[in-house]
Structure prediction request, 379 residues.
Amino acid sequence: MNWIKKTLFLLIGAGFALGVAIAALEAVFGDWFKHDKWLVTQQLNLIRNQKILFTTDNLQGVETPTALYTRDMFGLRGSCLNPKEIDIVTIGGSTTDQRYIGDGQTWQDILQQELRAETNQPICVSNAGIDGHSTFGHLAAFNHWFPLLPGFKPRLYVLYIGINDAMIRLTPMPGRDTSTAPPPEPSGIKEKIKQNSAIYQLLLFADQQRQAAAIKPAYAGHKKFPPRDSDYNATGKTAGVDSLIEQNTRLFSERLSLLLDKIQAAGGQAVCVTQPHLFVAERHGKLVGTGPGTFQFDGKTYNGFDYAASIASLNRAMQTLCPARNGYYLDMASKEFAIEDFYDGMHNTPRGAARLGRYLFEEFKRQGMIPPLLKKNAG
Prediction:
């Protein structure tokens, strides 16, 4: 019986030690005794207070072996020291976030440099792009993230959007962007644990990442090289894709309208920007598209022509809605880019980011968008 007692005491001791450890973790990292206003942003794929050195030597067209990626205490990229200094905020997914473009080399950095050189004013451009976000995530950012930024009142909201929505995103993607609904108030022990437990939030985040990894459609994932000649083997759109595009565009337009409402309510103006890509190209005098597998939706694969038609439809929605709501429309998709400007089908190399930043600056000048920024800085 002695060994039974010893085993029982060991189990009790181990259980007690585990309980103490869990209690200590919850006390330090949980939200039981304090209200962590940033807790809700954990579901937005938001990175805060981190410097990450990404390896980039395996990406075609990227000359440096690493890229230093910094996000400040507010979850923003860029040199703006305080949210109240931000004149222009950029919103979008991975092509806005640019996690493989180092600090100081993003298209936001180039746009800021050009604006400062032109005006001799400390115009500040901030990067609020989040990898994987679609318009679902952008709306969630307005609801749950931006209200946490003290003094945040940009003059211009650059919406570099559509790259993920074009892959037929009809619902929010787990672990990437969330719905617009606010989190429920805790009622009962189960809901209190969900909202306050650090361990629960960690397990939830891990499960969301697992779901995101398992769901391949509707996410502009990063690749190592641009499409090659052999990849362009599609000659037309996939049967049935037009009805999907129509449905997707209608829902995208509804979410874009909500975004424009929020921007106007905040006293800003929207700048809707189209995005270039390499999924359709001219080869030997003929227009061809990347083959099936360009993106997937609901268990079916779609090609480059499908993607081009989808994002073109979203661009037309932006072209209609944004100017009608006192905003601007900048067509970067029609600008000249080279294959060396991309490390895959849609993400820019540093060279491409610099080109995009300069194109944006030229459009800012052409459309008279700079004088209002000077008025804000003068005030």
